[in-house]
Amino acid sequence: MANFNIIGEDHKEYGPVTGEQLRQWILEGRVGSQTKVQIEGTAEWKLLAEVPELAEISKKRVPPLPATPPSVPSKTSGLAVTSLVLGVLGVFTCGLTALFGLVFGIVAMVKVSNSRGALRGGGIALAGIIVSGIFLFMIPIYAAMLLPALAAAKQKAEAINCVQNEKLLGEALENYARGHDGKFPAATTWCDDIQASIGSDKIFKCSAANSSSRCDYAFNAKLGGLDETNTAPNTVVIFESDGGWDANGGPERMIGKPRHARVFVVAFADGSVQQLRESQLNTLRWDP
């Protein structure tokens, strides 16, 4: 059989090739019925389908493989991004958002792995898991740093509340004196005598006191029934005590340990209320 020259799809001339080789190319789908063919030794170019000895075989060639469907661009997993964001936010939330970041990161890793390329972002999810894990590990450290500050703030608030209570009790004693010829109430009944003017029994209670008694304060017994005008301004009037309702006396009735960190709250005859350290208690004036 004659040899052949062909024009390829790139419009270049190839050959000569044998008839057997050309038949193989037809079967492989490399050339088709519309391929231009020239029988070696002739000047005429024909379509492969027009060459009798090749036309029949071109009809039996192996059909070309179906076209590969166009690939769909993969997208980044939103859960992976969310995981990383929540992990980073852990620095501002003391690690609380990191808990959700860890969960979202694990879920994102699973979904990316099972998506067969439809999802990407495995590296972001891994970063989210790592960052979230770090901040979760630091939660106990944050707690250790934060709890003392919270405790101090609570003690300060309780001390302020106690100052306000003693101020109101002192004002109630002054009001009582104005209505009773300028004299303070009897030391043994001072709570009963001013209770009506206080308005709320909560004023008698210190929020830092761990007691079930009705009153957490005591009255300076030396002022009982005394004329208010004969009292020195810096004389102790009300002080913290665990003696209960109508408790009265002197320094021996004062609480042994401060309820508010390192300070004791004391009210004076001039209407002032002070927070004193233990080293200052020995300077207090108890005699009018």
Please tell me about this protein's structure.
By secondary structure, the chain is α+β, with helices and mostly antiparallel strands. It contains seven helices and eleven strands. Strand 10 and strand 11 form a beta hairpin. Helix 4 runs antiparallel to helix 5 and helix 6 packs across helix 7. The protein starts with a strand and ends in an 11-residue tail after the last strand.
Taking pLDDT < 50 over at least 5 consecutive residues as the criterion, the unreliable ranges are none
Q: Averaging pLDDT over every residue, what do you get? A: 86
The proportion of strand residues reads 5-15%
State Rg.
48 Å
> What share of residues is helical?
25-40%
Strand order of the largest sheet: 9-7-8-10-11
Report how far the terminal alpha carbons are from each other: 140 Å
Largest sheet: 5 strands, mixed
Question: What number of domains?
Answer: 3
So how many helices? 7
Query: What is the structural class?
Result: alpha+beta
Overall 3D form: rod-shaped
Number of strand elements = 11
User: What is the element string, with H for helices and E for strands?
Assistant: EEHEEHEHHEHHHEEEEE
Task: Write a brief caption for the model.
By secondary structure, the protein is α+β, with helices and mostly antiparallel strands.
Question: Secondary-structure map with pairings?
Answer:
Blueprint: E1 4-7, E2 13-17, H1 19-28, E3 36-39, E4 46-47, H2 52-59, E5 75-76, H3 78-89, H4 96-114, E6 119-120, H5 122-137, H6 139-178, H7 190-198, E7 217-220, E8 236-240, E9 248-249, E10 263-268, E11 273-277
